[in-house]
Design a protein that fits this description.
Layout (H helix, E strand, L loop, with lengths): L1 E2 L19 H7 L1 E5 L4 E3 L7 E7 L2 E7 L2 E8 L4 E2 L14 E4 L3 E7 H10 L1 H27 L2 H16 L13 H8 L3 H13 L3 E4 L2 E4 L2 H7 L4
Antiparallel strand pairs: 1-2, 2-9, 3-8, 4-7, 4-9, 5-6, 5-8, 10-11
């Protein structure tokens, strides 16, 4: 990763919630990096060194699931990742993180991050709510993996991508994913997701242009997510 100052001390989850006076301390402790597209920032099993915030770009947070890869979530500008390694019983990251494009990152070492939580109560409170939301989403994902068809899980994945990343100027999802990454986020084999994607195209629910995905009929996609 290439070093270089890049963040504005305003945009990320931490900087937007800490005491104004604490930003001077953040500025002296932060380490900024630029990760290339496809570069692994850390891997599952690495010792926990700290947490990261995305300033610009996108990161996939993923882990091994049997002999496959499962994308747990995506981190886009302002979001935190690496926090899943924090805890009293673990000293290793349980997930990996990889840049989906050239991405500007801010790294905060573990000791200073813990001090930040102790001093900045609003940040600690909001991070607790963030953990609670993540836990709910993880539980939903496990339920979906157990009970939903691949086609329904694919519909869930597409709607989640729209909610997080929005649409670009042409109406497509504002993130470009490889078909392998879409399969890993859906939690299914590439071949099955490819077949289900073709079905959604033939049913005129979505359209494809290279890596860009356009949602044509959101109502019918949402209907698919109601399967149980």
């Amino acid at each position: 990763m290439k070093k270089g100052k890049c963040c504005d001390l305003e945009s990320c989850l931490m900087c937007s919630l800490v005491l104004k006076e604490w930003k001077l301390a953040i500025d002296s402790h932060r380490k900024n990096f630029i990760a290339k597209k496809g570069e692994q920032i850390f891997k599952e099993g690495d010792p926990v060194a700290g947490v990261y915030f995305v300033y610009k770009g996108n990161v996939k947070v993923h882990k091994h699931w049997g002999d496959k890869e499962l994308i747990v979530r995506f981190a886009n500008p302002g979001k935190i990742f690496g926090h899943r390694g924090l805890g009293t019983h673990s000293s290793a990251y349980p997930i990996s993180a990889t840049a989906l494009e050239e991405t500007s990152l801010c790294f905060i070492d573990l000791e200073f991050f813990m001090a930040t939580l102790k001093v900045n109560h609003d940040f600690a409170f909001n991070l607790m709510l963030f953990y609670a939301d993540e836990l709910q989403e993880s539980e939903k994902k496990m339920r979906n993996l157990a009970l939903m068809s691949v086609k329904s899980r694919l519909a869930v994945a597409l709607l989640q991508l729209k909610e997080q990343f929005g649409l670009n100027e042409t109406g497509g999802l504002n993130i470009e994913l490889s078909k392998q990454d879409l399969a890993a986020f859906t939690g299914a084999a590439y071949e099955t997701v490819f077949r289900m994607t073709t079905e959604l195209v033939n049913e005129n629910l979505i359209s494809l242009s290279g890596k860009q995905i356009n949602i044509i009929d959101e109502e019918k996609l949402r209907f698919l997510t109601q399967e149980s």
